[in-house]
Design goal:
Blueprint lengths: L1 H28 L13 H14 L3 E6 L2 E9 L8 H5 L33 H5 L10 H10 L1 H4 L4 H4 L16 H16 L3 H7 L6 H7 L2 H5 L31 H6 L5 H4 L2 E2 L2 E2 L3 H29 L2
Antiparallel strand pairs: 1-2, 3-4
Helix pairs in contact: 1-14
């Protein structure tokens, strides 16, 4: 009996470990390829954009000076003005003309230097007060941003959202949760922790940091939750962030619900005491094995106590 109990417990532990790593592999290796946004193709805009990208998609370009229009000079494009044409091609704005957002005077090259002082458009200039985009809550986001620490830091929409690469699919509805976490945290890490060591040092109070960072978004702990938004934008000061383990590790985790806002009920239930897996079947298997192991242990203890009775 003792040998059977030992072997069963050993098998349960090994099987649980295999299930755990299988689930982790499933979440970590899945990659999402976004579809190109639907809509009528504006060939005129694409043709006009190619003229802009002929310079702005390269590190070097040739341009004639007004004083010597017959001769072209090789110039270096400032890094901030270089557009990744591949990312733009797959972005939500790929079908727009550059001058839909930038001044029409930019069509003349070389550009008038005074254009550098033109006001920069915000997301709400197009998406605000528009019923077609109401489900994304741009107006609510604008209000939340005014209350956020990002407002005081003079960060704007484009500090986190590159208008030349933003994809609508990052709204999370059609994206695996593991990919959502990775994409969301990348925005924060870009400014707050460009090197991994500083990020780990700032969160040293939490165990298994790598697992936490791969399973939860920064904003889940650092932003005030809002059930009407898919992504909360009211970033709070660090002393108001979530520090309690029970905020996630309980039977009704509010933070996990914030992450799965808009998802199906089955996806919301993927958070269990055994871990945040991407498969209900894997979660059920590991819980079943652990329950069987516990039952065998209890049965063995009872059997030993019975045998010891005179």
């Amino acid at each position: 009996m003792k040998r059977f109990a030992f072997l069963f417990i050993l098998f349960s532990v090994i099987f649980s470990a295999v299930i755990f790593f299988a689930a982790k592999q499933q979440g970590d290796t899945h990659r999402y390829t976004p579809a190109r946004p639907a809509g009528e193709i504006d060939t005129a805009s694409l043709a006009a954009n190619r003229k802009c990208l002929a310079c702005h998609a390269n590190r070097h370009f040739e341009m004639a000076k007004p004083s010597r229009p017959a001769k072209k000079y090789a110039m270096k494009m400032p890094l901030d003005y270089i557009i990744d044409s591949a990312s733009f091609k797959h972005s939500s704005h790929w079908n727009f003309s550059c001058t839909d957002c930038h001044a029409s005077e930019y069509t003349a090259a070389p550009h008038d230097q005074s254009l550098r002082f033109e006001p920069i458009s915000t997301c709400n200039d197009c998406h605000g007060n528009d019923t077609a985009w109401s489900k994304f809550g741009f107006d609510t986001i604008a209000v939340q941003f005014e209350q956020s620490v990002h407002k005081d830091a003079r960060a704007g929409c484009y500090s986190c959202h590159d208008p030349h690469a933003t994809q609508l699919c990052l709204s999370r509805d059609s994206m695996p949760i593991a990919q959502v976490v990775e994409a969301s945290n990348a925005m924060c890490i870009k400014c707050h922790a460009p090197d991994n060591e500083s990020m780990l040092a700032a969160h040293e109070e939490f165990p298994h940091l790598e697992i936490h960072f791969s399973r939860s978004r920064c904003i889940d702990c650092h932003a005030s939750p809002c059930k009407h938004l898919k992504v909360a934008h009211n970033i709070r000061p660090k002393d108001e962030s979530v520090h309690e383990c029970s905020a996630c590790h309980n039977q009704d985790p509010a933070i996990i619900k914030n992450l799965t806002n808009g998802r199906t009920k089955s996806e919301e239930k993927q958070s269990t005491m055994a871990g945040y897996f991407r498969s209900n079947i894997l979660t059920a298997c590991i819980l079943f094995v652990l329950a069987c192991a516990a039952a065998v242990c209890i049965a063995h203890i009872i059997w030993v106590l019975i045998r010891k009775k005179p």
